[in-house]
Write a structure and sequence with these properties.
It contains 12 helices and 16 strands. It is α/β, with parallel strands linked by helices. The protein has 2 domains: 2-152 and 312-402, FAD/NAD(P)-binding domain (3-Layer(bba) Sandwich); 159-308, Beta Barrel (Elongation Factor Tu (Ef-tu), domain 3). The chain is globular. Bound molecules: flavin-adenine dinucleotide (FAD). Flavin-adenine dinucleotide is lined by residues 5-11, 28-31, 36, 38-39, 48-50, 118-119, 131-137, 140, 157, 159, 307, 309, 334-336, 340-342, 345.
Length: 448
């Protein structure tokens, strides 16, 4: 029997992978009796903010990671594909249908024993995967800090608001994807220069929820929009409000700025404001976001909010199989281990399950190869600088460089520009990653 604590993105994947290898799994989830400041349901793998597993571009970092997870029969990815909603070139899902589907698979698996409890001190006489996420309650987080001896690290992460589709003025907004890539799946709200400046003034003047720990940093890749706006009046136009590739059908031109909304439910009645994570007070969100053309009558199905995330100092605590160095039979998975993102957390759950499976079978540890996206992510956790360690998403830059002679960069740049170079590099990484994974699985799991 192995104990998986937390049925989030990572714990759900870990429990599934172990159960499907014939192990008996005790899966402990504290919700709904206890909850976190961001979760609202009693379902497994709840997506607390956006409903997106990011880009589907096969040659992007997330595209490569998805291909790897698919090859290893990821439950999270399979349920995501089954509950997909239109989102251009990205994999977005109906969050409720997705979580229901993961929950059903786990609860119906004969090897999984689902238990509702809040664990404060795990029983380490049993092999254990700890996957309690960025909002792990204090008793357990303090226990982890004390047994690893490396303290706790934190960053702030915010949630974006969701609005009701019926309230969006489609005489102003229009459906399209940037550069018409994928279907016309996003609602786009255009702003001219005056509208943008008015919106920015209101945003900068609005009241924010005070932070309980002023010295805790934000996660740089997912800053609240008001913090981006603090950095300069043009910052949003180069970030979540960038207008490039979006022709307004009323003018035939790119507007000065655009707010994009992505479908959040299969029925299409809710849309979330892409990249608009925020810690404005709720009243301020209503006032400021209603200044966006097309959203004057917006009704909010969910407001944005901010939360303090916990993670370990991975380079001191973990090896590249996600095993806790100082404690036998304990693995960490998901965001608490120092990865960031739904997809990366699920991938961490899968990797921890692979490691635990080998230990349970009496086999020596075997890390995923660095040439794979998953292996490079785990290599980063174990080998980054511990002094200023910060969580990471999957990125092509984590992979070892490609041999120079494989790509004729100068010729590619001449014929297709930097975009062609990026795509060719991504394709070469993908080919190399999948070949390395095939070889790894042949050695690690010959019978599957
Ligand atoms: C506010 C916020 C916004 C985010 N927005 C995004 C986003 O838009 N896109 C994105 O890709 N990622 C986002 N993330 C980051 C991250 O991808 C998610 O938090 C992801 O869900 C992490 O997966 P996980 O499995 O590690 O943790 P979780 O999915 O949070 O799962 C942990 C589970 O453990 C349970 N649990 C916790 N403690 C205990 C205990 N002591 N005993 C029993 N059960 C316990 C919890 O109830 C939960 O179900 C966000 C995170 C936060 C906090």
């Amino acid at each position: 029997m192995i104990h998986v604590i937390g049925a989030g993105l990572a714990g759900s994947e870990a429990a599934w992978q172990l159960a499907s290898r014939g192990h008996r799994v005790r899966l402990t989830e504290m919700r709904p009796r206890w909850t976190t400041p961001a979760h609202t349901t009693d379902q497994a793998a709840e997506m607390v903010c956006s409903n997106s597993f990011k880009s589907d571009d096969p040659n992007s970092a997330t595209g490569i990671l998805k291909a790897e997870l698919q090859r290893m029969d990821s439950l999270v990815l399979r349920c995501a594909e089954a509950t997909r909603v239109p989102a251009g070139n990205s994999l977005a899902v109906d969050r409720e249908a997705f979580s229901r589907s993961v929950t059903k698979n786990l609860k119906e698996h004969p090897n999984i024993q689902w238990e509702e409890a809040q664990i404060s001190v795990p029983d380490l006489s049993q092999p254990t995967i700890l996957a309690t996420g960025p909002l792990t309650p204090d008793p357990l987080a303090d226990w982890l800090a004390s047994i690893t001896g490396s303290g706790r690290l934190h960053f702030y992460d915010a949630i974006a608001p969701i609005v009701e589709r019926d309230c969006i003025d489609m005489d102003i907004a229009w459906m399209a994807a940037r550069y018409d890539k994928g279907g016309a799946d996003f609602i786009n709200c255009p702003l001219d220069k005056d509208e943008y400046e008015r919106f920015l003034d209101a945003l900068l003047a609005s009241e924010r929820v005070p932070l309980s720990h002023a010295d805790t940093p934000y996660f740089e890749a997912c800053l609240p929009i008001e913090v981006m706006a603090d950095r300069g009046r043009e910052t949003l136009r180069h970030g979540p409000m960038k207008p490039v590739g979006l022709d307004d059908p009323r003018t035939g031109r790119w507007p000065h700025a655009v707010v994009q909304l992505r479908q959040d439910t299969l029925a299409g009645e809710h849309f979330n404001l892409v990249g608009f994570q925020t810690r404005l007070k709720w009243g301020a969100q209503r006032e400021v976001f209603r200044l966006i053309p097309g959203l004057a009558q917006a009704e909010f199905a969910r407001y944005g909010s901010i939360h303090r995330n916990t993670y370990v100092q991975a380079p001191l605590v973990l090896d590249s199989t996600l095993a806790v160095k100082s404690i036998p039979n304990l693995w960490l998975a998901g965001q608490i281990s120092g990865v960031e993102g739904y997809l990366e957390s699920a991938a961490g759950g899968l990797a921890a399950a692979f490691s635990a499976n080998r230990a349970l079978c009496g086999l020596p540890p075997m890390a995923f190869p660095r040439l794979t996206m998953l292996g490079s992510l785990l290599h980063y956790l174990a080998n980054a600088s511990s002094k200023d360690f910060a969580p990471t998403n999957a990125m092509l830059g984590l992979l070892p460089p490609l041999p120079e002679d494989r790509l004729n960069i100068r010729e590619l740049k001449r014929t297709g520009g930097t975009r062609a170079v990026k795509s060719a590099k991504g394709a070469a990484h993908r080919t190399r990653s999948l070949a390395a994974l095939t070889e790894h699985l042949r050695l690690a799991e010959p019978s599957r």
